[in-house]
Write a structure and sequence with these properties.
The complex is a heterotrimer. Chain A is 7% helix and 35% strand. Chain A is mostly beta strands. Chain A has one domain: 2Fe-2S iron-sulphur cluster binding domain, sarcosine oxidase, alpha subunit, N-terminal domain (Ubiquitin-like (UB roll)), CATH 3.10.20. In chain A, strands 2, 3, 4, 5, 6, 7 and 8 form a 7-stranded mixed sheet that branches. The mean pLDDT of chain A is 96. Chain B is α+β, with helices and mostly antiparallel strands. Chain B is 31% helix and 25% strand. In chain B, helix 3 packs across helix 6 and helix 3 packs across helix 9. In chain B, 58% of the residues are buried. In chain C, 36% of the residues lie in helices and 22% in strands. Classes of the chains: A mainly beta, B alpha+beta, C alpha/beta. Strand 1 of chain A pairs antiparallel with strand 9 of chain C.
Chain lengths: 98, 377, 471
């Protein structure tokens, strides 16, 4: 659970997370946005289905994987939110692409 | 470690702890032999890590029908082999035999494949291998996600696959459970015949055994002369790239694409004359390109790792099983298809080695005499 | 910029836009050498100066003066006109200095006269029971969230581990008005004695006074529990509590919504090792360091390493190493161009290196936190436990590559970044040999994932096609 410093609030963009509308701070990475929105996990593992949340926030742990605009297994900590972005939890294995 | 290893005295020593060595060692332990497996260290030229896990029948034996028989026999005994290993170790080898495809991406490839399969199956002395040359539509009926530029495939119901890393682990575990002694970091420097047996001088000390089996892949070339054999093998690099774990979409193995039980999709493979197990473009680009042309939906998947291994190639591509005339009790076993043949190596070859004599028919087809290479006196 | 906008060749390619990479690229640009700086993040600064150009944290005293130092570096970099490509992931490098880089989902190859790797460090793995639970993250992650998004933890918050970064984060959280319920210090009690002989040189370090004042300010605002010898995160779907033990004391459980772990940083070796650069195990720093000369040149001709990737030594040392790496590259390419002042670089380097050994010894992490036991997960990607690894060593498995074949540890997308050190140490311990003898995972490209389509679009040769198609 994370909260925003008062001084750090800024312009927001509109995204959906698992189909629900949310506002995310413009400039946040997807991983940060998920934590700020109160999501305690962002994926379930393909091996055991265990819940995971972002761990390193610098692109090396691969625990922040989410599906973005239909593409699975994107590292949420390396991608900034964009207006209209559709974010869904990465549940287990990746789906084969379109 | 058991008593035998402390005394370093064994009925039979297997040099090489890869798939060939391990299947033979398990098979030997299974028939009551006191076995030692002498293996390299961690950074090994391990062909066993660089295979495609195929149990493949369809294209084997062009130029040697006996090899096709040997292959079919091995493939047919795989279910029992996998079950026995599972019972002993609890490890599921995920053996499946749904039939396999060799996909062609151009008309030329299709025609070449068609001609090859015809030549292969019309050889005198071949076992009956059922296969079907399929056009694009027929392939698509079985593999709906196939790409539009795929021209067809040869399909053989006798083909299958397994989890070969688990096979490797199961063999290693099972052979030790049956009493075999596994010695890593025991690279063999020298072999001497001594009083009806052998003394093996290794990086980890001396080991003595009544018989010795050279199953060290590429290293067999170096070791063979020490026991009066000549095993001409050369390294052949194979590169494979592997994707992230993906929802199951492919239950059939394709010669160059298969999805593992874990979900990753393996894309292969190359055969290069090279001496280092290095991965790189442009070969990996070709692998990726052909994979994406076979299944366009693979394009969006991430490649998360790659393998390169130095696989073993004999002069004609067929296995070598030899026994030494000059040093009785010394044998060599070398092949390219360590996964397919694992069952027969364990269940057929190993008992023969335990008896100390390879039968004439095995030697006729698979010894190095076929190269007219004189074995050192 | 897209992959297609790049040239086929640059005299110098720098990878990583932390202090070392920025300094190296700046020096190259000033020397008029054609160069490019690739960095995976969207803005420069690496991790220590993360979001320096666009942090939403406006209060400068919150992050502290050391952070804002980065602004000077970036300003100089921008002014130099150096070519900079953000959002660029370098996924392969060959000994012949051919580079594979992915930008915006498209990859290309290019070649370099000289390469300077400045890919920095990452947090040492901290495999405690429950470390994979949601709610547990690294202290570095906490810092990134603060710097890049102005986010601080809400609810019961615990910092745990050992090392200056943990204290810095605590201080930053306090300044931000965030509550830190406890700082569990796992620095082994015996480290003080081991480090003491080297204290005199640390007294001369620029870090000494800063460090002392930081420690004091944190102790005023946070409950600090030292000599923590056991630690675990507890919960099922997510972490709900943290349990710890001090020396031989009773187990204490604290409610926790956030646990931030830190026990030092280690070089991010993946790209360097994948190209075959020789590394050696460092028994003090307990990690793999590349074998380098004074200018950062590696065992592979034409490739140098600068920054924490050359060996953990902090941002100031990183900057000077970047300068020195640039000097050798510039000299190799254009002998008569003006290079930065080498003597000055060495002098600053000496100044900030002094006393580092004291810190290395003082904060050397405890064995039980590097070599977990039982059902503690070691490989997060494939969910392999310590018990499985130890059982497999007992079967005679000699090293991490065989271990990888047998158990799949190291096969996930992180490619061993979070398990490699643990696996090497566990095997070394079980076999009774040194980590140097055990070795590390064999790393290969792509060192970060790229798509099949990206790879497929790269140039192919007839020989390569023949090797695959074989008809």
């Amino acid at each position: 659970m994370f909260q925003r410093l008062l001084e750090s609030q800024g312009a927001m963009v509109r995204v959906t997370i698992d189909g629900q509308p949310y506002e995310a701070r413009d400039g946040d990475t997807v991983a940060a946005a998920l934590l700020a929105a109160g999501f305690d996990h962002c994926r379930t593992t393909p091996v055991s289905g265990a819940a995971r949340s972002p761990y390193c926030m610098m692109g090396v742990c691969f625990d922040c994987l989410v599906t973005i605009d239909g593409t699975g297994n994107r590292q949420g900590c390396l991608i900034r939110v964009r207006d209209g972005m559709r974010i869904t939890m990465q549940r287990g294995k990746r789906e084969l692409g379109q | 470690m058991n008593d035998a290893s402390r005394s370093r005295d064994f009925d039979i020593a297997v040099i090489g702890g890869g798939l060939v060595g391990s299947s033979i060692a398990w098979g030997l332990a299974r028939v009551g032999q006191r076995v030692a497996v002498l293996d390299e260290g961690d950074v090994a030229q391990r062909a066993s890590r660089g295979n495609f896990a195929l149990i493949w029948v369809q294209s084997k034996g062009l130029g040697m029908p006996a090899y096709s028989h040997w292959t079919l026999r091995a493939a047919n005994s795989w279910p029992g082999f996998a079950n026995e290993l599972k019972e002993q170790t609890g490890l599921d080898l995920c053996y499946e035999r749904p039939g396999g495809f060799h996909v062609t991406l151009t008309d030329r490839e299709w025609l070449h494949r068609d001609a090859l399969m015809k030549r292969l199956t019309s050889q005198p002395g071949m076992p009956a291998i059922e296969f079907e040359m399929m056009d694009h539509d027929r392939v698509k009926a079985m593999l709906p996600q196939i790409g539009p530029t795929v021209t067809g495939a040869s399909f053989c119901a006798a083909d299958g696959h397994c989890n070969s890393l688990r096979l490797f682990r199961a063999l290693n575990q099972a052979m030790q459970m049956l009493g075999a002694t596994y010695l890593s970091n025991h690279i063999v420097d020298r072999i001497e015949s001594a009083g009806g047996g052998f003394r093996l001088f290794t990086k980890g000390g001396e080991v003595r055994a009544g018989k010795v089996v050279l199953a060290a892949g590429i290293a067999n070339a170096r070791l063979a002369p020490m026991v009066g054999l000549n095993i001409p093998v050369r390294p052949q690099r194979g590169q494979i790239i592997v994707t992230e774990k993906t929802q199951p979409f492919l239950r059939y193995p394709i010669a160059t694409i298969r999805q593992t039980d874990e979900g990753g999709v393996m894309l292969g493979d190359s055969q290069e004359e090279a001496v280092d197990a290095v991965v790189g473009t442009p070969v990996t680009a070709v692998l990726a390109d052909r994979a994406a042309r076979t299944f366009p939906q693979l394009g969006g998947l991430n490649v998360v790792r790659s393998w390169a291994a130095l696989r073993v190639m004999t002069q004609d591509g067929f296995p070598i099983y030899s026994q030494s005339a000059a040093a009785p009790g010394a044998f060599a076993a070398t092949c390219h298809s360590g996964v397919t043949l694992a069952s027969s190596h364990a269940l057929v070859l190993a008992p023969l080695l335990a008896q100390g004599q390879l039968p004439a028919d095995v030697l006729h087809s698979f010894s190095t005499r076929r190269f007219d290479v004189p074995e050192a006196a | 910029m897209s992959a297609g906008d790049l040239r086929d060749h640059y005299d110098v390619v720098v990878v990583g836009a932390g202090p070392a990479g920025l300094a190296a690229a700046t020096a190259c640009a000033r020397a008029g050498v054609s160069s490019v700086l690739f960095d995976e993040q969207a803005s420069p600064g690496g991790q220590i100066y993360r979001s320096i150009t666009d942090t939403p944290v406006k209060n400068e005293s919150l992050l502290g003066p050391d952070y804002w130092e980065g602004g000077r570096l970036v300003a100089a970099f921008v002014k130099s006109g150096a070519r900079y490509v953000p959002g660029a992931t370098v996924w392969s490098l060959t000994p012949e200095r051919e580079i594979g880089v992915s930008i915006g989902g498209g990859s290309r190859l290019l070649s370099a006269g000289r390469v300077i790797l400045a890919t920095g460090a990452l947090e040492r793995p901290f495999p405690i029971p429950g470390w994979t639970l949601p709610g547990v993250m690294t202290a570095g992650a906490g810092q990134v969230l603060l710097k890049s998004a102005g986010l601080v933890p809400r609810g019961p918050t615990i910092l745990a581990g050992s090392g200056p970064l943990l204290w810095l984060l605590a201080a930053q959280y306090l300044r931000a008005g965030a509550k830190v319920d406890a700082l569990l210090d796992s620095t082994p009690a015996g480290n003080r004695a081991a480090a003491l002989p080297h204290l005199p040189s640390f007294l001369f370090s620029p870090y000494f006074a800063k460090g002392l004042s930081l420690l004091r300010s944190v102790k005023r605002g946070v409950r600090v529990i030292d000599h923590v010898t056991e630690l675990r995160a507890v919960g099922d779907a997510k972490m709900q509590a943290v349990s710890y033990r001090r020396d031989d004391g009773a187990e204490v459980t604290l409610l926790a919504a956030s646990l931030l772990l830190h026990q030092g940083v280690v070089p991010n070796v993946n790209l360097a090792m994948s190209v075959g650069i020789e590394h050696r195990w460092d028994e003090h720093q307990l990690c793999w360091n590349p074998v380098l000369d004074a200018f950062g040149r590696t065992s592979v001709e034409g490739i140098a390493i600068a920054g924490d990737g050359a060996g953990i030594a902090g941002a100031q040392v990183a900057e000077q190493r970047g300068v020195l790496a640039a000097i050798q590259a510039i000299r190799a390419l254009a002998a008569d161009t003006t290079t930065p002042d080498e003597a000055a670089a060495h002098s600053v380097l000496r100044k900030y290196t002094r006393g580092r050994f004291f810190l290395d010894l003082l904060y050397r992490p405890a064995k039980q936190f590097r070599q977990p036991q039982g059902s503690t997960i070691v490989c997060r990607c494939e969910e392999i436990t310590a018990q499985q690894i130890n059982d497999t060593v007992a079967l005679g498995c000699p090293g991490p590559n065989q271990m990888k074949s047998f158990l799949r540890c190291g096969m996930g997308p992180c490619q061993g970044r979070l398990c490699g050190l643990t696996v090497t140490e566990l095997i070394a311990e079980a076999r009774g040999v040194s980590p140097q003898d055990v070795g590390y995972y064999r790393l290969r490209p792509p060192v970060k994932p790229i798509t099949v389509a990206e790879l497929a679009a790269l140039p192919k040769t007839e020989a390569a096609v023949k090797a695959v198609v074989r008809i």
